Amino acid sequence: MAxxxxxxxxxxxxxxxxxxxxxxxWLLYQRLPRCAVxxxxxxxxxxxKPPKVLHEWIQTAIELYPCNLLFVHRDAExxxxxxxxxxxxxxxxxxxxxxxxxxAIATVPVRMTETWLLFDAQAIxxxxxxxxxxxxxxxxxxTELESLPDPKSTLHNLIxxxxxxGTHRRARFDVxxxxxRIPEYIDDFSPLRGLxxxxxxxxxIVDVIREQRWCD
Length: 216
Known about the structure:
- By secondary structure, this protein is an alpha/beta fold.
- It has 2 domains: about 120 residues, 3-Layer(aba) Sandwich (Rossmann fold), CATH 3.40.50; about 70 residues, no CATH class.
- The chain is built from 8 helices and 4 strands.
- The chain has a 4-stranded parallel sheet with strand order 2-1-3-4.
- Strand 1, helix 1 and strand 2 form a beta-alpha-beta unit.
- Helix 2 packs across helix 3, helix 4 crosses helix 7 and helix 5 crosses helix 7.
- The radius of gyration is 18 Å and the shape is globular.
- It starts with a strand and ends with a helix.
C-alpha cells in the first residue's frame, strides 16, 4: 500500500541548512506525488548537553524528532562525497546498535548547502527583496558549482548585489534570512540533477522508497 503520510527530519550543523528542506520535499514529491510530506529540523544546539559525536546526534534527533525518514546533512568541505557519505553511514550503523533507527540518508552538497541555491537568479532577487531588480547577476555555470572554492561567499555577494542597496543599508541587510528564503521561490530543482552530489541524493531517496515499499 502506498504511503499516505511521510514525516522526515533534517539533522544538520546549523540553521542555514534549513534551506535544504524545500529541496528535500521537492525530491520526495517527485517520487511520492500522492503523499503528504511533513518535515522538521532537528535543532539540538539548545540542549543542556548537546551530543559530541555523530551517532549520538542521530540518536538524539530521532528521540526528539520522531520520523519515517532521517536526512543527515554534512558539508563536503575538504572531503570527498564518498567520504562524507561513509561517515554518515558508519554513524547510522552505530546508532542502530542502541535503538530503532528509521531509514537515514546522507545529504552532502558539494561543497556546502549554498551550492544548491546558486542556479536561479530570479529566486535570489526575490529573496533579496528586490524582485524587479535590473542589475546583472553573474551566476556560476551549473557545471562549475561543485568546484567553487567558497559557494557561501559567492551567494552572499550575489544576494547583496541583488538588493541594489547603498553601502550602509547593505551592511545592515540580513543575508542569512535571505538565504533561507531562496528555495521558497523555486518551483523546480531539476536543473540540479546535473550535479553528481544532487543526483546521488536523488538515487538514494529512490532506493529507500523502494526498500520501504512506500510506493506500492
